[in-house]
Amino acid sequence: MEQDTHFDSDDLSWDPAGEVAVTLADGASTVEGGPASGAVIVDGGTVTISAAGTYRLTGTLTDGQVLVATGEEDVVRIILDGVDLSNSAGSPFVVQSANEALVYLADGSTNSLQDAAGYADQAEDSPNAALYSLADLTIAGGGSLTVNGQYNDGIVSKDGLVLAAGNVTVNAADDGIRGKDYTVLLDGAYSVTAGGDGVKADNETDEDRGWLLVSGGTLAVSAGDDGVEAFSQLTVAGGTVTVDQSNEGLEAAHIAVSGGTVNVTATDDGVNASGGSSGTGTLAGGMGGGMGGGMGGGETVGDYSVDISGGTLTINSQGDGLDSNGNATISGGTVVVNGPSNDGNGALDVNGELAVTGGTVAAAGSAGMAVTPGSSSTQSGVQLTFGTAVAAGTTIQLADSGGNLVATFVAAKKTASVVYSSSAITAGEDYTVYTGGKAQVAAGLGNGTLDGARQQGSVTAGEYTAARGPGGR
């Protein structure tokens, strides 16, 4: 997907001799140097850039605006090198027209943008973010940027958006960072606090658009609605994504994790592939009869998918943990789900087929809506169903017939069912379940010993209770 963006690494190189220096000051902004200096017009608190070129901005406007209004084929590079820019009536930074705008954060610089709490211009297509672009937008550089979107959104591109580098903090009344055709995080550190969605790509009309990719860098999100959302495809191929507060953590029609580290906390579904916005117990007899499971109880199987092939995905959800309104596949990586305690949701919820062919899966939660790997799975697993839910913090361990530990899991919340699959599990073999003992885990899984553990029962690999069944027998 990276090759489908407007971004080119050559955009990050230029001849400093060609820079235009713009010093921002209330009522006294100045322009000097460079062949494009005549393309900068200062009118009171508004600084307008009207031609392609490289512009280095310094200084402060307590009530002003930087406006980019160039030809549709022009590429404009704006270097923020110690800029503090605010506007009392609207957006302080607007790209009205260009082919591409690059906002480059000068190494070592600290910059800030803050818009008005209410906008004077309320027209439908008017700016509604502290950094607003109608053209392709790239953010790069080694400096820092704080964006306060008091009115609505923080950073918006109504075209494509590439976050190539930078240390960026966004606080927004509604959405934090929003691209239309695509939103891509290549590198840098981005921290978003949003009243609405955290980071999104929302083109709902053009084919092959509305996608979001994280291939590097770090993204931390605290959102009042969805954490990271795309209309079509959401992919994490590298980097670190942490959603520490959200309604739904990751949401898109198609969600893929092939690398990196993803940690999601959600009051509803943790990972949701859909077309919407958004104490020690006793093991109850182990497995029910029959192979299979994994189907969504007769629900419609739509064109939605979750595909985990690498990386680490950790979910803590009050609703469904990993939820697909279509199919789901896990072929690599590590998936840990600390799902719901109530029986109205499940740690795994797949309307179609859940195919597990590799990786490690530990999905813990309630038993009433438990979904298990389907018949197309080539890697075996077990389902542990407790007659009495075990308390948060309980160590749950699994040993083979020779007494060798094959799994150690520590429950993050009250747990009645655990589905576990890994290459260490052999279909048809019996395994003994223990609670207690010693454990050293990261994200719930790790190593342990059976010192002090209590035997709870046994299970047979590959035998699952019926999907959405009551658990146990």
From TrEMBL:
It holds the Pfam family Cthe_2159. InterPro entries: Cthe_2159. Residues 454-473 are annotated as: Disordered. This is Carbohydrate-binding domain-containing protein. It comes from Arthrobacter ginsengisoli.
